[in-house]
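Why do we care about 3D structure at all? Because function follows from shape, and shape follows, mostly, from sequence. That is the central idea of this module. The next example makes it concrete: a single protein chain, its amino acid sequence, and then its structure expressed as tokens.
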Amino acid sequence: MKNSYSPIIFLYIVCLGFFSSCLQNARENSGNVHLDTLKGPFDSLNVQKNEKIEVDSDNQTLAILNETNQGSVSSKHILLKDMFGINAFEWDFLQDPKNPGIADKIFEPKVQLIKSFSAVRQFLDWDKIEDSQGLYTFSPTRRGGWDYDLMYERCKEEGIFISPCIQSTPDWMYNSYPQGMKDHDVPPVFYKANREKPESYLALAKAGFQFAARYGTNSKIDSSMIHLVKQQRWFNDRLNKIRLGLNLIKYVECRNEPDKWWKGKSVQQTGRQYAANLSAFYDGHKGTLGPGVGVKTADPNMQVVMGGLAKPDVNFVKEMVEWCKENRGYHKDGSVNLCFDVLNFHMYSNDNISWFNKLFRSSSHGKAPELSDQGLVADEFIKLSGQLKNMPVWTTEVGYDLDERSAQRAIAIGSKSPEMVQADWIVRTGLNYARHGVDRVFYYQLYDAEPKGQSSGYPFGHSGLVQDGKRRIAADYILQINNAFGQYHYTKTISSEPFVDLYENGSKKMYVMVVPDEIDKKENFQLELGTTQKVLLKYLKPGSGQMASKEVAVNGGKLLVHVTETPLFVELL
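And the structure:
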């Protein structure tokens, strides 16, 4: 979840501007770019000698074309539907807007909207499940009365993949800090605790155990290790019951944006500190913190997702790996004993590094994903993944805003409104990440963070893909793609100007075609289709759950296609 920015941001802008100029120099031609061309305060975006940066006429980076990585990306069988998850809260499932006091019933209209997406990343505030230290509630929660059992059961029933992100430090912990430092974003340790010691994170690690014991796959846990609140809040209040191994949650994320650099050192964690945090949360620091500590202690099958980094810098993760080498050692096969199962980063507009320096420009706005550094950053994480036994890579926040004051806003292009461009760019973000090998993508977020009509200039206040009980155009497009081609997997890219990607589902084949620009550019491209005699051209359609389609004959194995900045789908018949 995004936060308001403190004045420290201005200090960073100087450095960020320097980085941007360095990156611009690296784009002066479309030849091979050597490792030493990208130097600056954030030099982790390394481009190898066997890679090419393709540049358009406006000197904007379109993509890194790395032939050696094409095979490895296609072998991952990245499903198209996995590129279209959403960030949401429990009240997005359980709360009727007309009866906000009812928190323990599914509100059907909201669930139908959520089903537009293939997956949900749930923002789960820690104090919801641990209102008082050492005592836990899940169904209902002590704070808010939310019924997580009901919510997760419904997700499983509907086939909605859900990954809770346990975030925010409870008041019973942050109140140990001096006045002026009390903040729910402080690291999950009591004041003055050593942030590089796993034992400092014992409380969160115990909460991880309780959560995994209930929602994981292991039902053979001693019930005496489960510590639920036993007091009613009021007469006839429903009490929590011990439930084990419900098999409802496969992944859990430990904290949101632990590298909160804009909030200062009192809140920000370093890579080493966060590794210590994860080591406790993961398995009780290899079981040394006692019984009932750590997710894996309760359920070895549950996967721990590292918190999405606000600044997508692989050096932060490399610090984590070094800490693990020193403090967790190695497995018998020689691999590092890591305390996370999924790499995770956040990127907005360009790369969430250089976009902040655009705040001073009157024309500040979001950028089309292919024109940003999105591919560069994704490739760095995929490269690191290859060094970590091909660990999955997620991005759990990305998106575009509709507030005209937002530096992250989508813009009107040609006859398209900002909402239509937001939809184009979000779909193209998913396609771009699939191209680069990212395993899952979650957009920020289901509903607007700010009320309708309010415009504070907050960059992410009106980024919702659903509003007023109905889908925005981006959600229309996502629903259409999931319905038609969600089970298709990325195979290869045959062109980058325009982009033409091949997706397959068994013997079925489909091409996605799009012009990677933001100037209402249109191109014609000839598809070579061999013996295929006819295709279905499928067009994304605002306000609908299904694409528009048109059957077209193929003459001589060739088909000339008119391609625009809105993705077009060509299904082979």
